[in-house]
Design a protein that fits this description.
Elements: H1 54-68, H2 74-86, H3 93-105
Length: 107
């Protein structure tokens, strides 16, 4: 037997449908050709508790912080644009090379 949990909340609120003919009975009237009727009633309310692992809690905290912070640091971008435009922005070739090497070693 397959139970469609998505439709449980709609049982008893929509008209019955004859599965063979596709006809719909008026609300409150049982479809005479239907051999079974769903008589599910809501059970007692239960509370479910979920406990996240410390790792999952940390990931959740990081995700919240990321949503709070802007994606682009507008001030930093403006400073870099001004430095490049004025010619005062200098690239340290040794520092750049070291970072490239360390980045490829992580792969």
């Amino acid at each position: 037997m397959v139970i469609d949990f998505n439709r449980l909340s709609t049982i008893g609120t929509s008209p019955s449908t004859n599965a063979r003919s596709g006809t719909t009975a008026p609300p409150g009237e049982r479809n005479p050709t239907s051999s079974t009727q769903n008589t599910l009633s809501p059970g007692p309310e239960t509370q479910e508790n979920v406990q996240l692992s410390p790792e999952a809690q940390q990931i959740q905290q990081i995700a919240e912080k990321l949503q709070e912070s802007p994606e682009i640091n507008e001030d930093k971008v403006a400073q870099l644009k001004a430095a490049i435009a004025s010619g005062s922005y200098k690239v340290d070739a040794q520092k750049l090379a070291d970072k490239l090497i360390s980045a490829t070693q992580d792969w």
